[in-house]
Specification:
alpha/beta; binds S-adenosylmethionine; about 300 residues; two-stranded antiparallel sheet; 9 strands; elongated
Length: about 300
């Protein structure tokens, strides 16, 4: 069965009396070469387990099962489960789990896979929940080797942006803390059934085993990044003083200019993750000093 053919996809959905569910972001890939390219490039070790989020009718799952040791596929739509049994029945190395990935204990689900060897993530992500899924995967601290996702091209640009560019945002800085993202290729909207309104791109994130940035206090790093981008148009002293109430604006300006040798009128969008880390360390030290001098 050619699971990458638009006619077959529609016929198979009809066979199981299913409609494409917009609320679950169901736009299924219908181009074999794209599916093969994603499967080929999502991981470099055939002995890996692949966590697939949202197998849909199983086209990507099928190609992953041919290339890697095992596929654990988490699908929210219970209607697709019997269909997936039918389309993926030939594969002994596929486990389909009917769950919302955001409510799944991935650590437990993947414990046997992590015990055996490498685990990577591969997903054509539903548009409605791209960023929450990505943040959940990164913040889970599970030692994935790669996270390869198909996302809207605009989101892909943001994930892979360089500091100082228009597309650079809080998610770029946070992602750079956990790993290195690269855009692999673009996928036009007409390679999906039904076609979405926008083009997509495939992004591969290589997670760091040892992070190049080690902040003194991680929550302060994330707080600094969030504050800098919440008020993107403001200069850094103004944006940070709206959030860091423990420090005066002068103290924040000194942390920026004296401790980090940055200009006072700099905006957060110019700071890469290394500079954010240095700045968050400076803010953290000043907060600690103040608390020791003036304990409440
Ligand atoms: N992998 C298939 C493909 O490439 O053709 C389908 C991709 S489709 C864009 C997204 C898939 O994710 C759908 O099957 C949808 O039902 C599923 N999905 C949506 N939200 C989900 C969630 N929270 N947890 C697990 N699966 C989800």
């Amino acid at each position: 069965m050619n699971l990458c053919d638009a006619k077959t996809i529609r016929q198979t959905m009809a066979m199981f009396s299913l409609n494409f569910r917009k609320e679950f972001g169901q736009n299924f890939l219908c181009d074999r070469s794209v599916v093969e390219d994603i499967a080929d490039n999502c991981c470099q070790n055939a002995d890996s387990t692949i966590l697939e989020i949202g197998p849909g009718i199983g086209s990507l799952t099928h190609e992953l099962a041919l290339r890697y040791r095992e596929v654990v596929a988490v699908e929210i739509d219970s209607g697709l489960i019997p269909l997936l049994k039918y389309t993926l029945g030939e594969h002994q190395n596929v486990q389909v789990v009917n769950r919302d990935v955001m409510k799944t204990d991935l650590r437990s689900l993947l414990a046997p896979a992590f015990a055996r060897g490498g685990v990577s993530v591969c997903a054509n992500l539903p548009y409605y929940i791209t960023t929450p899924i990505l943040m959940m995967l990164l913040e889970s601290r599970l030692p994935f080797d790669y996270i390869t996702v198909m996302v809207q091209s605009e989101v892909a640009d943001r994930l892979c942006a360089k500091a100082g560019s228009k597309a650079y945002g809080a998610i770029t800085a946070v992602l750079n803390y956990y790993g290195y993202a690269e855009k692999l290729f673009k996928v036009p909207a007409d390679r999906f059934v039904p076609s979405p309104k926008v083009d997509s791109s495939v992004v591969r994130i290589r997670l760091y085993r040892e992070r190049p940035c080690v902040p003194l206090h991680e929550p302060t790093l994330f707080r600094t990044v969030r504050a800098a981008f919440e008020q993107r148009r403001k200069t850094l002293p103004n944006a940070l003083s709206a959030v860091f109430n423990e420090l005066t604006k002068d103290e924040i300006t000194e942390a920026i200019t004296n401790d980090c040798a940055l200009p006072a009128d700099i905006r957060g969008e110019r700071l890469d993750i290394q500079t954010f880390t240095a700045l968050s360390d400076a803010l953290w030290r000043r907060i600690q000093d103040k608390q020791h001098k003036d304990p409440q």
